[in-house]
């Protein structure tokens, strides 16, 4: 794990926050790391594992973080054309009672499926084969109308794991290993623990004693939470989620996704597909990635918990930062450790904005910049790098979007109201999905639909 250290004062503040968490929450051992620009900038540890402080190579169970790695393989299958996210499950996994669910609904936890499987407490008992689990999943497992709401479902990711296995002709685990873990250099992420690893404990609520939690092969439920990993490997995962994928075994930045996914697909996974109820959403779900809005940041990643373990990994793509923790306790953490660590980092070592410098511009595009009118309302058109455009209201409010150039001379909406729509530019008007923008309000010389009769008192 390549490490570009933060300053001494920053490291001390980060370590103190970690130490407070470990002491006040009574955690047997706790590790955390900060990632910047694809590299580990800080690692900290408190407590003991087998009598020694944990290291970046100490394994912990990561629980549901496993889901995000399975989701990456599903998105790779989509990008290859092996499936569409809108496909009903029946097209690829026939013969189940879940056939009408779409793959996107399973990824975003909007399928309406039960949270837990119709088995004994799956996190504490050995699992069953996928065929047996699928036989048990009947109509009674639907708790909500598909697509109606966000309802977290471990069952849904067990089904996605079997989908991956069928389409890849191997196990979900081998597919994740070959397509995600190995390319990112995550060689210490395994299905079962290897030394050195932490033992999972429950801490007594009213006494300073612990109880060892069981650990089993979860079988068909494995895609929902089987994997073990290390701070070193999860730092690589955080870098990947931030769009700074790492080269195999080097720790060096290797561009968006490190070859595992395109930048566009990774960004798609980070888009909100569902949000938790509330007046203003602070948590939601993308395609296999949990989302959070904290202190003005838009974070993407995943939390994980299994008996004896808690973990989280979050990435801030805007700042190219990541944060993670791993702990061997069933419950009791504060819930704010990761965001507090990011706050400390940004307070002590805020990023400097990139230096502005002029760039060459196509004169024809430069001539398009300036004020355009949608009816009577002024908009500003700006030229962005790589021939992209930004169209935004001159005053506050309204529909703002960015557009990227296409081979046919048009521009494609990148975000906002006009995402996916086509912008065509002429000397005297812009045509944006039938809306016509003119250089003066309702210019009578421009092809405004409905015609222009002229302004009058």
UniProtKB/TrEMBL annotation:
Residues 22-332 form the Beta-lactamase-related domain. The keyword Hydrolase applies. PANTHER family: D-ALANYL-D-ALANINE CARBOXYPEPTIDASE, D-ALANYL-D-ALANINE-CARBOXYPEPTIDASE/ENDOPEPTIDASE AMPH. InterPro entries: AmpC-like, Beta-lactam-related, Beta-lactam/transpept-like, DUF7586. SUPFAM superfamilies: beta-lactamase/transpeptidase-like. Keywords: Hydrolase. Residues 362-439 form the DUF7586 domain. It comes from the Bacteria. GO terms for molecular function: hydrolase activity. It comes from Nonomuraea phyllanthi. The keyword Hydrolase applies. This is Serine hydrolase.
């Amino acid at each position: 794990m390549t490490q570009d250290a933060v300053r001494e004062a920053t490291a001390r503040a980060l370590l103190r926050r970690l130490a407070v968490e470990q002491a006040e929450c009574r955690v047997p051992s706790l590790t955390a790391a900060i990632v910047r620009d694809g590299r580990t900038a800080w690692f900290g540890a408190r407590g003991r594992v087998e009598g020694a402080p944990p290291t970046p190579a100490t394994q912990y169970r990561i629980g549901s973080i496993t889901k995000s790695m399975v989701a990456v393989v599903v998105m790779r299958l989509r990008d290859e054309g092996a499936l569409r996210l809108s496909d009903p499950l029946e097209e690829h996994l026939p013969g189940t009672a879940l056939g009408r669910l779409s793959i996107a609904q399973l990824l975003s936890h909007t399928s309406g499926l039960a949270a837990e499987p119709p088995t004994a407490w799956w996190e504490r008992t050995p699992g069953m084969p996928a065929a047996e689990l699928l036989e048990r999943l009947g109509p009674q497992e639907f708790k909500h109308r598909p697509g109606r709401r966000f309802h977290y479902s471990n069952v849904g990711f067990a089904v996605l794991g079997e989908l991956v296995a069928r389409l890849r002709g191997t196990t979900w685990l081998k597919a994740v290993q070959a397509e995600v873990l190995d390319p990112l250099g995550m060689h210490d992420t395994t299905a079962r623990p290897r030394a050195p690893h932490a033992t999972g404990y429950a801490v007594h609520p009213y006494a300073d004693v612990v109880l060892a939690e069981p650990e089993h092969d979860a079988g068909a439920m494995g895609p929902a939470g089987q994997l073990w990993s290390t701070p070193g490997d999860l730092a690589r995962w955080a870098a990947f989620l931030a769009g700074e994928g790492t080269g195999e075994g080097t720790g060096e930045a290797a561009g968006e996704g490190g070859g595992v996914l395109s930048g566009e697909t990774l960004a798609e996974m980070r888009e909100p597909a569902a949000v938790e109820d509330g007046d203003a959403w602070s948590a939601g779900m993308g395609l296999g990635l949990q989302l959070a809005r904290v202190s003005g940041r838009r974070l993407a990643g995943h939390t994980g918990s299994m008996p004896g373990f808690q973990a989280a990994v979050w990435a801030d793509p805007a700042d190219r930062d990541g944060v993670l923790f791993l702990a061997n306790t069933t419950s009791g953490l504060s819930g704010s450790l990761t965001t507090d660590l990011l706050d400390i980092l940004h307070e002590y070592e805020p990023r400097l904005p990139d230096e502005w410098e002029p760039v060459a511009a196509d004169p024809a595009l430069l001539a398009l910049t300036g004020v355009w009118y949608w009816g009577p309302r002024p908009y500003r058109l700006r030229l962005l790098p790589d021939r992209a455009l930004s169209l935004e209201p001159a005053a506050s409010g309204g529909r703002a979007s960015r557009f990227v150039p296409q081979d046919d001379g048009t521009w494609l909406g990148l975000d906002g109201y006009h995402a996916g729509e086509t912008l065509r530019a002429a000397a005297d008007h812009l045509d944006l999905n039938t809306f016509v923008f003119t250089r003066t309000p309702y210019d009578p010389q421009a092809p405004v639909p409905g015609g222009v009769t002229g302004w009058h008192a």
